[in-house]
Amino acid sequence: MTTANLMDGTAVAARMNETTADRARELREATGVEACLATVLVGDDPSSATYVRMKQNRCRKAGIASRSLVLPASTTTAELVAAIRELSDDPAVHGILLQHPVPDHIDERAAFEAIDPAKDVDGVTMHSFAAMAFGLPGFQSCTPGGIIRLLDEYGVDLAGRHAVVLGRSPILGKPVGMLLLAKNATVTYCHSRTQGLAELVAQADVLVAAVGKPEFVKGDWLKPGAIIVDAGYHEGGRGDVDQAAAAEVASLLTPVPGGVGPMTIAVLLAQTVDAAVAQSGPGVRDVAVDTRVRVSK
Ligand code: NAP
User: Fold this and answer.
1) What is the C-alpha to C-alpha distance for residues 8 and 56, in angstroms, rounded to an integer?
2) Which one of 118, 205, 223, 253 is most buried, by most CB atoms within 10 A?
């Protein structure tokens, strides 16, 4: 028997996107400024191309302009850095998204750091990470920001709960742990060298799975009544958690697809409009609705 309630990321993201579209229109009407996201794709990885296309389509639906830069897989770090700096200097571009991952020979960190922090709407720069870690205003890493927003929407009080994060990547595991901490959860990080993983997962009131391995988390690892966020997305619509088994045990569960994925894009769009507003002068700042998480003590 299925017991878990599903956290409907598609529905929550749709509501967020409506607000974002309203704000983009207000900005356009007040100033003539059209919020614009530049996407940068390096190489010909088909899934990356699909993700970028999806983000551009969502931009269009929200009345946000998008500019697409597609570079060959042979692009050097220096060439990529130069291209991103040019976008950083372009006043018509308000947000920049470099699609991860880039080909192995490129220094991805150097490329991310070429993004002007004021345009870092994907929350990938050291500046954004530090602001998030200190609980200061700044752009959030989109998937972690989307996860926290979804938990908020479902009324999950994280204070004092034990949150276990599987994965410590700079774009997902690490920042989502920081945001859970900012919400006063007690956070345990697990990674490929963690010993006794199943026992740690069994203690989780809240589990965020971001390992990148299909159905890695088994149903019998989970604490009954746990809240499960499955950030994974794999061929055939599978997540990082065995969804069918988790649905029997969890109290709340993000489905795959339709859980974390749409929330990631919703945060990206909201932050693009935040960036456009901030770059359009103090007179229009009241168009912005703050979507960011603050430390609550
Ligand atoms: P990643 O960079 O590959 O990181 C995976 C993490 O999992 C690493 O920290 C790794 O540990 C850990 N790990 C690997 N094998 C493990 C094991 N056997 N036991 C415990 N930990 C293990 O992946 P990512 O970019 O964070 O993405 C994670 C997942 O989220 C993927 O399924 C991806 O498709 C999905 N994702 C979804 C969205 C979305 O919008 N829905 C966005 C981004 C990513 P080490 O650090 O020790 O190597």
Assistant:
1) 22
2) 253
Of all protein residues, whose CA lies closest to atom 19 belonging to ligand 1?
192
Assigned token pair, 29: 């009407």
Instruction: Give me ligand 1 centre to Cα 176, in Å.
Output: 12
Task: Report how many domains make up the chain.
Answer: 2
> Which of 86, 118, 150 is the endpoint of a domain?
118
Q: Do residues 210 and 109 share a domain?
A: no
Amino acid in position 132:
M
Per residue of the chain (297 residues), what is the pLDDT tens digit? 568 999 999 999 999 999 999 999 999 999 999 999 999 999 999 999 999 999 999 999 999 999 999 999 999 999 999 999 999 999 999 999 999 999 999 999 999 999 999 999 999 999 999 999 998 999 999 999 999 999 999 999 999 999 999 999 999 999 999 999 999 999 999 999 999 999 999 999 999 999 999 999 999 999 999 999 999 999 899 999 999 999 999 999 999 999 999 999 999 999 999 999 999 976 554 554 444 444 444
Ligand 1: list residues with CB < 6 Å. Answer: 143, 166-169, 171-173, 190-194, 197, 210-213, 231-233, 240, 260-261, 264
What is the pTM (predicted TM-score) of this model? 0.94
90 is known as an active-site residue? no
Residues 148 and 205 occupy one common structural domain: yes
Q: Which atom of ligand 1 is nearest to the CA of 191?
A: 21
Angle at 229 between CA 176 and CA 225, to 5 degrees: 125
Q: Is 99 a catalytic residue?
A: yes
* Most ligand 1 atoms within 8 A of CB, residue of 7, 190, 191, 221 to mutate: 191
The CA distance from 292 to 297, in Å, is: 16
**Same structural domain for residues 36 and 90?**
yes
Give the domain extent around 250. 141-261
Cα(24) to centroid(ligand 1), Å: 33
Distance between CA 200 and CA 211 in Å, rounded?
A: 15
Final residue before a domain boundary, out of 67, 83, 118: 118
* Chain-centre distance for alpha carbon 23: 20
Q: Is residue 17 part of a domain?
A: no
Residue 178 belongs to a domain with what CATH number?
A: 3.40.50.720
